[in-house]
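Let us begin with a simple case.
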Amino acid sequence: MRRVAKWWIDSMTAFDVFINVFLLFGLPDETISAHAGRAMLEGKVWGKAVSYALEYCPLFGRKHVQGAIAHDAARARAVVAAELAAQALETGNDQKIT
């Protein structure tokens, strides 16, 4: 059951990122929630409105936007670490990357 739940969450996240990039012209690997939070921090009205709606939506709950930004940042760091590890293997520098 956990495997199906993880697949479902991963699939919904991928769909969320696709919609954000394709319809909202957001950054690659950024969810709609994180995009809205970034826009809110930049003072954009739409970001404030969407962030407020997400924060008070029972489906998502408080601090959803803040959590989305943190989750997207963690996912980006994991991608960078994997790319650096692959690059180290290609160059023969197989030292541990932190």
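The second case is a distinct protein. As before, the sequence precedes its structure tokens.
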Amino acid sequence: MGLFCFTFAQNNANGSSSYRKKSSFFEQIQKDVQQLNNSLQVVMDTYKGIWQKEKWLDTQEVCLLLGISKRALQYYKDQKLLPFSCIHRKNYFKRSDVEQLLTSNLQTQ
């Protein structure tokens, strides 16, 4: 803050053209930040529905829900019986996929 005030005072002493250049520079930065904010808002609005509509479960929740061990869950993943997403080295499963696995196993028995 002090540096800006010093620069501002120095620019006023030297002339206002330098101040206008810096002012337009900051205005351009402000426009760019606003554009970035608008772009991020569009992305967030696009993907917000996905996370709100679908409940995602982690490994522990799936094991408890299915009544299986982590090793059995790994077997399901390896055999592609249960789709998953990996985010920051942590696996997440759609609740609907877990329920579908449960119902398919009940129907085959």
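Residues 16-53 form the longest helix (38 residues). Strands lie at 56-58, 85-87, 90-94.
Keep these points in mind for the review questions at the end of the chapter.
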